[in-house]
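Preliminary data (for renewal application), thiamine diphosphate complex.
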Amino acid sequence: MPRTVIQESRTERLEILDMEGRLDEALAPALSDDQLVTLYRLMVRMRKFDEKALNLQRQGRIGTYGSIKGQEACQAGLVPALTRHDWLVPSFREHGVLISSGIPMHLVYALWKGDERSNLFPEGIRCLPPSIPVGSQLLHAAGLGMGLAKKGDPGVAVGFGGDGATSEGDFHEALNFAGVFSARTLFFIQNNQWAISVPLKRQTASETIAQKAHAYGFPGIQVDGNDVLAVTSASQEALAHVRAGRGPYLIECLTYRMENHTTADDQSRYRTPEEVAYWASRDPIDRMRKFLSGRGLWGEELEKSWALEVSTEVDREVELLETMPAAPATDILDYMYGERPWFLEEQRRLLQEEAES
Ligand SMILES: Cc1ncc(C[n+]2csc(CCOP(=O)(O)OP(=O)(O)O)c2C)c(N)n1
Ligand SMILES: [Mg+2]
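Predicted structure:
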């Protein structure tokens, strides 16, 4: 019997804007000037949302909060590729995508206040409640994508996860099912190189996360996750592939979490100041600003007016958050099951009595 190569796979990495904001014209996604400016403004809006959340947490006005600082290009870049048919299946670090998809900021703040009503999204928004167990979102997205394929629904399920999630069995089961059943699923992995204090090199011996998709029989690409145009381009290509019924796709956005894991963490115990400073110098918003500036689409005055618009919105949303009527104490037991099992019924009764006393 001969010994032959029966399988070979290559993994590509995509970067379109370099650190100085110079564009690779041949690779640029087809976006109008307005759309380019919108992408930048989405990122600025996310950053302001995030800064406010950190302040609210410090003042005790919300609970523990997980920052998205540094990951704005991953989240904004995906947005132009989505349609209203697509389902978002978020983890705990997708606030940027959520607030860019029609979910008002105050609901996302409310999530970090432990308020179950944060999941009562506006009518017509296709989004599952953010799920905290690491990796679980990917299985939900695989199942949802299998359902969409069966129903002939035009939507795609976009499942989110981090680098840490790729070490969970859920990740591998999800990719396997999605591949075998040709699910309408995009696995969108934000590899921010840390899972709390566990660095990427302790997470996987593979060179990339993208290549893992190839083992499950579908395409995966690594994208510079601090380059918003690369993320848009890869997302458009991936979603076109899934929409055409050609099966799932995986995008790995290589990025960096610029803040603590959450406000309950102290990153200085496991990351060097040099590493953090290196990534601060690769800020995704700065890169896009340089690009827009070079095109005559950015200026100090514009920036000021955009910033004012966002801070007015953020203030209004905080007001909405803080004037929500108190949630019923029993809310925490009301949304898990269609029909509550007897033991939850029992707990709910006790909780109600406690609240009333
Ligand atoms: C199944 C499970 N195990 C542990 C945790 C605690 N936990 C929350 S976030 C996290 C790290 C996740 O890292 P990653 O997937 O890289 O996402 P990131 O936080 O970097 O966005 C851990 C271990 C959890 N929520 N769920
Ligand atoms: Mg991570």
